[in-house]
From TrEMBL:
UniProt keyword Nucleus, yes or no: no
UniProt key word Nucleotidyltransferase: yes
GO molecular function ontology, one term from the record: glucose-1-phosphate cytidylyltransferase activity
Lineage of the species this protein comes from: Bacteria, Bacillati, Bacillota, Clostridia, Lachnospirales
Protein name, as recorded: Glucose-1-phosphate cytidylyltransferase
Superkingdom of the organism of origin: Bacteria
PANTHER family: GLUCOSE-1-PHOSPHATE CYTIDYLYLTRANSFERASE, GLUCOSE-1-PHOSPHATE CYTIDYLYLTRANSFERASE-RELATED
Name of the gene: rfbF
UniProt entry keywords in alphabetical sequence: Nucleotidyltransferase, Transferase
BP term (GO), one: O antigen biosynthetic process
Domain Nucleotidyl transferase span(s) in chain numbering: 2-230
Amino acid sequence: MKVVLLAGGYGTRINEESHLKPKPMIEIGEKPILWHIMKEYSHHGYNEFIICAGYKQYVIKEWFANYYLYNCDVTFDLTDDNRMTVHNNAAEPWKVTIVDTGLDTMTGGRIKRVQKYIGDETFMLSYGDGVSDINMNDILKFHKSHGKVATITSVNIGQRFGTMEMEGDRISSFREKNETDGSRINAGYMVLEPEIFDYIEGDKTIFEKDVLERLASEGQLMGYRYDGFWQCMDTKREKDRLEALWADGNAPWKTWE
C-alpha cells in the first residue's frame, strides 16, 4: 500500500528554518522529520512513498539523491576516476516518488496531482511535520471495518487547531477549537479510498475544509481515536521539544529499534 506525504507548504510558522528548506526537511537528531515519519511507516511494513513536494522541492529531491552521502561512511578514490565506495550501507527498503505539485497548490490539489501514481487503490496519507507512536496496521484494520471513504486519526490535546464533532467513531462536522474544550483534532495518519479523488476539484481545493467537511456531511468520514503520543512540529518551540526527546533517548515515535 502506498503512503502519500504532504510536504509542499511554506512552513511560515517556523520560518527560523523554513526560509532555507521545506519544513519536512527540518532536522530532528540530524535527520529530516520527513525521514522520521517514513521510518514509522516502514516499521509497520509500508515502504512505498509518494511525496507531494512544492516549496523548495529540489531540497527533498537532492537529499534522497544523495542518501548514501548523508547516511553512510564513504571513501572517494581520487586516483580511480573519483570512485566512491559506500561503507556501512544504511539503505532503506523504500521506493520514493517525489512529485513537484506546485508552489501555491492547496492540500487537496496536491493529492489530486499524484493520483496517477496511486492508481485505483486504497492508500495512506499524512502530513510531513508530525510524529507519533501509532500503529499503522491498527488504523488500516479500523478503516476496513467500516467501509467508508476515509479514516483520519483523531487525538485529544490542548492545542489551537480546529476540532471535530464525533458521534461514536463517525465524524459529523468540524468547528473552531475553544481554549477550554477537550474535543479531538485531526492528527493526519489517514486511510483513503480512491473515491476520494472525486471530491477534489483542482489546485484550489483545500483538503481539510472542502473535502473532509463534505465527507463528514455525507457520513463518509470516520475517526480512529488515538490517545498515545502525537506531536506536530509547527513552531520552533515544538521542534526543540522533539529534539530534546530524541537527544535524551526518550523519543516515543522511535518504535523501529
